[in-house]
């Protein structure tokens, strides 16, 4: 769907430089500072920043179009920076005091995360003492804060899934990211030892999904903050899968147009198998975009109407996108498998797109084996399985 998107227009001007840095990102095992500076120069980090702090509060469809375009240039950069952006949406649901802590003196500040509830804590006066080696914190080298997950005992004898927000001064980044795909995302471990987290920097995840968080209602004119945090957090992953697949269509066409078979000299670009592969993958990617856009538009409409989705609606929103990622991966695989051995060299863009495509489907939110179970249970009227995130 074509929509006015000034931020995307500005972003397009820096994408060639970011694409030129894709190999450098993989070598560094983190996003190059130049890429961060370029993206901040066009204001992408302000996409979900509250207007009260100078942000743009753009719609989810506009944001996802930006992330898809960025992923086509360098998916590692898109992975890390998308999270730095979507975390602003999550942070806007915390208390005003916490938001002032983060953005009061530095509205350009961002947060990475490690939200799986593996943190350990002790109750103390005014908050908690937090400990843990918190893994999978993409883009942490470029963030001033971190959002970390833990399970907190409640008065009813159960546990609440909670988030704590911790400043960069209270943790150490471990240089342990060495992966096969998304190599430049800098998805490292945060080593946190005896960090005091005041109560105003703690929030229940459930409250952030139901409009009960401390920040709910702070921005009555907003069109994006009357919405659960999780769909915004998750949509970036789907957009990246789409962006990689859309880029692979172009790369396949460019390579195949001039490719000849080494032993026979036959022109591959006019061969029926290549044409059929390109056609089917094109249809899949177009279908994936249409399906994703439908879901993004529903997110935006619900938020603007200040309507929270039902459990069934949330199940469809999440699993629609996971299915779209699944078919994007199929489209990429079909094309890469036909490009020949030369494209397996590590300096070739096609092999990087192939690797990163598979990583976009490996996150807990895009794992279709998990999502298919979630939707299947919902369709059959069964209670959600607590072992499925």
UniProtKB/TrEMBL annotation:
Name of the protein this chain belongs to: Flavin-dependent monooxygenase
Q: Which organism is it from?
A: Maribrevibacterium harenarium
Q: Which SUPFAM superfamilies match?
A: Acyl-CoA dehydrogenase C-terminal domain-like (SSF47203), Acyl-CoA dehydrogenase NM domain-like (SSF56645)
Identify a single GO molecular function assigned to this protein.
flavin adenine dinucleotide binding
Q: Keywords assigned by UniProt?
A: Monooxygenase, Oxidoreductase
| Keyword Lyase among record annotations | no
Q: What is the lineage of its organism?
A: Bacteria, Pseudomonadati, Pseudomonadota, Gammaproteobacteria, Oceanospirillales
Residue ranges occupied by any Acyl-CoA dehydrogenase/oxidase N-terminal domain in the UniProt entry: 17-97
InterPro entries with a match to the protein in the record: Acyl-CoA_DH_C, Acyl-CoA_Oxase/DH_mid-dom_sf, AcylCo_DH-like_C, AcylCoA_DH/ox_N, AcylCoA_DH/ox_N_sf, AcylCoA_DH/oxidase_NM_dom_sf
Task: Cite the Acyl-CoA dehydrogenase C-terminal domain residue spans from the record.
Answer: 236-367
């Amino acid at each position: 769907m074509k929509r006015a998107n000034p931020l995307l227009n500005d972003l397009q001007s820096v994408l060639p430089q970011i694409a030129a840095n894709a190999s450098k990102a993989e070598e560094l095992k983190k996003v190059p500072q130049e890429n961060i500076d370029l993206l901040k120069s066009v204001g992408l980090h302000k996409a979900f920043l509250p207007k009260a702090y100078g942000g743009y509060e753009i719609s989810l469809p506009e944001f996802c179009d930006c992330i898809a375009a960025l992923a086509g240039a360098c998916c590692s950069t898109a992975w890390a920076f998308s999270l730095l952006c979507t975390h602003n949406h999550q942070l806007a649901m915390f208390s005003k005091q916490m938001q002032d802590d983060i953005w009061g003196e530095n509205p350009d500040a961002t947060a990475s995360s490690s939200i799986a509830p593996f943190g350990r804590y002790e109750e103390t006066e005014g908050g908690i003492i937090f400990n843990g080696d918190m893994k999978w914190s993409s883009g942490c080298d470029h963030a001033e804060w971190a959002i970390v997950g833990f399970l907190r005992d409640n008065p009813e004898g159960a546990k609440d899934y909670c988030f704590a927000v911790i400043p960069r001064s209270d943790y150490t980044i471990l240089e342990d990211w060495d992966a096969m795909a998304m190599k430049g995302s800098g998805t490292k471990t945060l080593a946190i030892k005896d960090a005091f987290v005041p109560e105003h920097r703690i929030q229940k995840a459930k409250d952030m999904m139901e409009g009960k968080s401390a920040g709910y209602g702070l921005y009555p004119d907003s069109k994006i903050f009357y919405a659960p945090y999780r769909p915004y957090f998750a949509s970036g992953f789907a957009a990246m899968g789409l962006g990689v697949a859309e880029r692979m269509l172009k790369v396949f066409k460019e390579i195949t147009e001039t490719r000849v078979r080494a032993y026979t000299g036959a022109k591959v670009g006019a061969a029926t198998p290549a044409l059929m592969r390109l056609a089917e993958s094109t249809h899949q990617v177009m279908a994936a975009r249409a399906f994703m856009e439908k879901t993004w538009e529903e997110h935006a409409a619900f938020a603007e109407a200040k309507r929270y989705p039902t459990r069934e609606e949330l199940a469809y929103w999440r699993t629609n996108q996971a299915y779209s990622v699944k078919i994007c991966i199929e489209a990429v695989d079909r094309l890469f498998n036909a490009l020949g051995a030369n494209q397996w060299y590590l300096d070739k863009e096609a092999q990087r797109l192939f690797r990163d495509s598979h990583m976009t489907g490996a996150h807990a939110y895009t794992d279709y084996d998990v999502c298919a179970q979630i939707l299947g249970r919902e369709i059959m009227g069964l209670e959600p399985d607590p072992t499925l995130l």
